[in-house]
Amino acid sequence: MKADQDKCIACKRCFPYCPMGRIQTVKRHEKIPGRFFIEIDQEKCTDCGVCLRANICPVKALYQPEMLWPREVRGILSNPLIEFKGSQVPGRGTEEMKTNDVSGRFRPGEVGVGIELGRPGVGAYFKDVEIVAMELAPLGYEFAEENPITHFMKDKKTGKLRDDILNEKATSAIVEGKCKLENLPVILEAVKRAAQKVSSVFTVEVITKVPPVGEIPIKPILERLGYWYSINTKNNMGLGEPAFRFYEEK
Amino acid sequence: MTHSLHRRGNLEDLKDDFVVLGCPATGINKAGSAPKTQKFLSICYKNGPINLGDMKTGNIYNTTMDDILSHVTDGTIVQCTFDNREKIVSLLKDLKEKRPGISVIISGVSDIVQQCMEEAGLGRIHTIEYSLGTWGKTELLPEFEILKTHTMCGHAMIGADLIRKLVRDVKRGRRTVEEACLEMAKCCTCGNYNLTRGIRLFKELLPLYMVHSLY
């Protein structure tokens, strides 16, 4: 996002709308005496577009220039209105468990593990995303093919991202994939290691198919290993059609 | 996407906070899903959501229901936010009977969602996603009271600074609490912001902050 210095009057109304915090500076206009304008730090801005959509600028100075690769990844992951063509889902993730009732993406014995960097409200550079991906890759973690981050990988076996995006930043970026249930403790240990190395925050989420009877399989693992998990969850109701047959007879 | 999963708060904070998503599946039922999604939206609307929207079009606080309905295409993911469990039970009964055909996801306190499903005559939750919290440099996060409001928009479109600015505005008499919360609802494009909970949280937040000057 940029502010047109010939229109901007440095009223600062857009400042609080930025989820990345105070990333603007006030500058003196070189050609118009007495005029000040704001300059948005392009290195910190993630092109999420919230300041523009808030329609807060009284002189319409804010504008989103067309961004070329690799800068355009910022908008792809940060602006919820932009759809990533690989996932065909607006925003930075995939359908993951939302359509598991019809897709069968996460089957009994499998666990979806997502790590969303930069969230909530801090932002993350892709070099941090790479740290997480590279910790997980050698451990039998299967990256979600349709996820933008997987598309940006140079080598899916190592989790290495393309070099040209490493210094780009997004409001948040999700590493998505799945592993075998018995592998979950090892994967979470790797995530813990990554947490020591990154310069941002990330949220961690785990997905499992709920069996028709009995305990939810990941709960005893999380409790035994002492991981905190939330009382609020995302729950697929199983109303999609045609229903995927998880327990069909062999 | 996990933008409705990581809402922060205790049971009292979250017990009346539900985000309902309607999502067609790519390669399975996405082609021709627009009328199904519109049907899903209409069923939700009838049950009185506090917010409703589609990521690309906006929510009912920055556009109209007709506009949202008319912009639904094959593959559109829609979100409706509810502020009490009775509405969720009623909604689930309607969805069970009318079966729009797309996947339905409800984010909320899992025990309450499960109870609602049972009351509506549905079985167990099909697939569940847990948040394991925030890891890494957590010292960069805003204070927890701010986070409770901030995490209602999973895309982080309600910045911590905006919340603080709106606290100042209300304290200085420039906006009412309701106007401040409406401003936040407009920023959260998808319609995940629960206005009822937002107003309650904002009223709890007000006494915690001092402003340098009231003018």
Provide a descriptive summary of the structure in words.
- The complex is a heterodimer of chains A (250) and B (215).
- The radius of gyration of chain A is 21 Å and the shape is elongated.
- Chain A has helices at 50-53, 72-78, 100-103, 126-136, 148-151, 184-197, 218-225; strands at 2-3, 24-28, 36-40, 62-63, 83-84, 89-90, 110-117, 124-125, 142-143, 153-155, 160-161, 169-170, 173-180, 201-209, 232-236.
- Chain A has 7 helices and 15 strands.
- With 215 residues, chain B is α+β, with helices and mostly antiparallel strands.
- In chain B, strands 3-2-4-1-5 form a 5-stranded antiparallel beta sheet.
- Chain B has 2 domains: 11-119, 2-Layer Sandwich (Alpha-Beta Plaits); 138-208, no CATH class.
- The chains are: A alpha+beta (250), B alpha+beta (215).
- Chains A and B meet through strand 6, helix 3, strand 7, helix 6 and strand 14 of A and helix 4, strand 5, helix 5, strand 6 and helix 7 of B.
What does this entry show, briefly?
Chain A contains 7 helices and 15 strands. The longest helix of chain A is centred in the C-terminal third of the chain and has 14 residues, at 184-197. Chain A has 250 residues and is an alpha+beta fold.
Summary tags:
heterodimer; A: 250 residues; alpha+beta; Alpha-Beta Plaits; 4-stranded antiparallel beta sheet; 15 strands; 24% strand; elongated; B: 215 residues; 2 domains; 5-stranded antiparallel beta sheet; 9 helices; 6 strands; globular
What does the secondary structure layout of this molecule look like, with pairings?
The complex is a heterodimer of chains A (about 250) and B (about 220).
Chain A (H helix, E strand, L loop, with lengths): L1 E2 L20 E5 L7 E5 L9 H4 L8 E2 L8 H7 L4 E2 L4 E2 L9 H4 L6 E8 L6 E2 H11 L5 E2 L4 H4 L1 E3 L4 E2 L7 E2 L2 E8 L3 H14 L3 E9 L8 H8 L6 E5 L14
Antiparallel strand pairs in A: 1-4, 2-3, 5-6, 7-13, 7-14, 8-12, 9-13, 10-11
Helix pairs in contact in A: 4-6
Chain B lengths: L10 H4 L3 E6 L10 H13 L4 E4 L3 E2 L5 H6 L7 E5 L2 H14 L4 E7 H10 L7 E10 L7 H7 L9 H12 L5 H11 L7 H11 L10
Antiparallel strand pairs in B: 1-4, 1-5, 2-3, 2-4
Helix pairs in contact in B: 4-5, 6-9, 7-8, 8-9
